[in-house]
Amino acid sequence: MKNVTLKSIDGLILNSEETLKQANKLLSNKLPPNLIAVPCGNNFKKTETASKDYLKKQLKILFVGNITQQKGLHVLIKAMYKLKNMNISLSVVGREDLDLNYIKNIKTYIKINELGNQIVFYGSLTDENLQQKYLEHDVFVLPSVNEAYGIVFLEAMQFCMPVIGCKLGGAKEIINEGENGYLIDPEDSDTLAELIIWT
Prior knowledge:
Number of strands: 8
CATH topology of the largest domain: Rossmann fold
CATH class of the largest domain: Alpha Beta
Distance between the termini: 43 Å
Largest sheet: 6 strands, parallel
CATH architecture of the largest domain: 3-Layer(aba) Sandwich
Strand order of the largest sheet: 5-4-3-6-7-8
Structural class: alpha/beta
Order of helices and strands: HEHEEHEHEHEHEEH
Strand content: 15-25%
Radius of gyration: 18 Å
Helix content: 25-40%
Oligomer: single chain
Shape: globular
């Protein structure tokens, strides 16, 4: 059905090179005229630089994204388990109603492995409250396996946060390895745990 829809259009506006690659694959290299339009703008009313206290005792990690398998929260939760005895916390921001079985499995894993005191779910937040979360945290992680662009990475960078994403999808167009963040292979919770400690 997607192929039929794409074949019927006269042109494409895409949000990343990764999206262009996927469209090209769907259309068997027979793309209509196209251009890449990088998302822009600022969701936050004021640009406020985060004042990070890197000498504090607890490392605070932030995840922002709809809670679905694609976004890779389970990979981050497994990394948290590997760091269980360290003073690290995780705040999860995003809708929980899109994949009920997935979120149920996530929360069961958290309970069984006694991670509840380290992980807090906030649901969806207003821009103002989300801005506050960016300001309060030290590292941003979104191990999504298919991020078309990943504007949340740019939002996190706006607040002076190093970011960690996956090598697949649009994240690699934003994250310069070792400069503004790091990239991991999908499902690689071991490397993710190591990177969290390094950042």
